[in-house]
Amino acid sequence: MAFGDGRGSVQPTRTLAWIYFFLGRMGDATARLEEAHHLNRTNLEPAHRLTLVDLSALGAAYRASGRLDDARRVLQEGLALAEANRETGGDPLAFSIAATLLCELGLTLNVQGHFVEAESFLRQALSRYDAAPPVIFTRLRPKARARIGLGQALAGQGKFAEAERHVLQGFDELKAHQDELAGDRRAILREAVEAVVQVYTASGRREQAEEWRNKLSAL
Question: Which of 77, 113, 155, 169 is the most exposed, having the fewest neighbouring CB atoms within 10 Å of its CB?
């Protein structure tokens, strides 16, 4: 559960935060991740990989708790730090973590209904996943989730043909690599199926939506 070389009192707090996060206890995870972020500012360099990973998780936890403005704020903070790190030739793993930050921000913007902006960030996320080596957080928020989010953003704009392609491809990728996923694999797959149902429902394709609802019930 440790994500690197946390110093002093940071590591126990982070470990507990990530236990809660992997268990889906987002309220508890949020409180611990906030504490870890405060400690990170004191104990680590601004763009340290652990700082960026914690901000990515904190953004996801905020979104799950309905705190969308807070989610957007911390994810934008993380992206700014990751970009500064890249420009100064710092930790190369920060480039990988930026993919998950972009993904989380795009997913947050989808929930807020900002679909055009979400599309832009999710397309950037996909390109970063392709260019960067994997890190453990990409197993929790893999490239396929960014692809599914892109499909949702496109559906929100009425671009249903392209949206369908992305959500189906994303689900297939998750299904094929489900043993590599971290966290609640069943929840990740259910979220993907729900996105497919959402796209078919929004496009008025009731038969296909019902077919995928049945798949959701079987998970």
Answer: 113
